Amino acid sequence: MLSLKAKSPTYQTLPRGIILAYAAPRIAFGIMGTLFGVYFMKFATDVLLIAPAVIGTILAIGRFWDGVTDPLIGYLSDRTRSPIGRRRIWLFAAALPMGLSLIGIWSPPEFLEGIALITWLMICLLLYETAQTAFFVPHGALSVELTMDYHERTRLYGLSHMIGIFGVAAGLLSLELMQQAEDKRLFAFQLSMFAATCITCLVVWTTFLLPERTDFQGRAQKNPFQTFLDILRNPHARLLLFVYGIETFGGATLGILAAYAAEYVVKMDSLVIILIVYQLPQFLFAPLWIRLSKLTGKRNLWILGTLISAISFGSLYFAGAGDDLYVYCCCFFAGVGGGAGAVLPPSIQADIVDYDEYLTGERKEGAYLAVWNLVRKIAGSITAFIVGIALQLSGFEPNVEQSELAQNTIRSLLAIMPCVCYIIGALFLVKFSFNEKEHREVSAVLVERRSARNTDLPTEAS
After folding, report:
1. Considering the domain boundaries, does residue 461 fall inside one?
2. Quick check: is 56 in a domain?
3. Cα–Cα dist 18/10, whole Å
4. Cα 39 from chain centroid (whole Å)
5. How far apart are the C-alpha atoms of 356 and 59, rounded to whole Å?
6. 243 inside domain
7. pTM of the entire structure?
């Protein structure tokens, strides 16, 4: 039933309809999100004819801009008080700006060139990143509030990831059509118009369907500096942020360099098939991660996925022209590891938010999601900047046969860098100690506190 007013969830097991409503926007974002992650840099260098170092710098600036907007929106989202809900009101507000700025990124006026074109892209990118942050930070925070159950969270993120794969599939179809399009600028405009409409409509529709806990309003820290100091003082959060950052730093090379490696190194005709092989096991193995996490623990399963990713990426270094089957095998197992990395970390992160409440008595989902997203974006921006500079220094020239130095640069950045980063991440994950038993003990204390608080302040629970 559609409702503008926020209504607290009243169930222990999340209905599939709620999970679908939470995850459905991923399908719309996937249409252009996959294309942006895999193809935008190549689109900018080969179609818009912007130098690799310049577009890498633009992407880096966009990510560093998130260093301002992510913490700010996370803090404000936690502090928001509204009958609509402290999260849902942000989702409604972000819907239209995301669509409009997305069109601007992919459809710069053809008469723009040089500094004018760069300025246009910079402005549109910053607008999109700001609007996207206004959606994703509160949206992610809302997922932490949907259920307090240790294993139900893994189910939520596992099924959400599976649903999101349909968006990735739509993005891969978009990528294939983009590569086949004779007029890529025209196709980018048409596709971005379609994607923007889908994003705006689907975000508004699903936000109506989502519940939101009203009893968590008014439970955030008033001091923004204290809020983020609390996160850094949380030992479990510090360790997770480092691991997530180092793994994102390495893994981001796949999205940035996959198109370059397919065309210029391994000489494979269809990048889309490579990416399908990478995404398919993420969909197939998600139910397995949900089940196994109950047996092995979330941390242990994440370590296993990280090591699988390290071996798979490292093996890509030895791929050359004509090694199609070898590349497919590496990508398949990289997808197996990547699927674990998509399902388990957000579930563990949600548990750490509960631990923060245990320490401070406050609910800071927005701040935690902001820092989590910020680490991801900064790590990705540093990777994009390094890749752009490295391609420039290696003598990369678009749409021609690449030199041996340029090919080796692409190969090393795509294989060796993520391999090393994943190994480092796995080693640090061994030190992570917050498990199901500790979460159960923390949850019992929190339930008692909330019960006492709601008894003393009944109006806040209404």
Report:
1. no
2. yes
3. 12
4. 17
5. 33
6. yes
7. 0.83
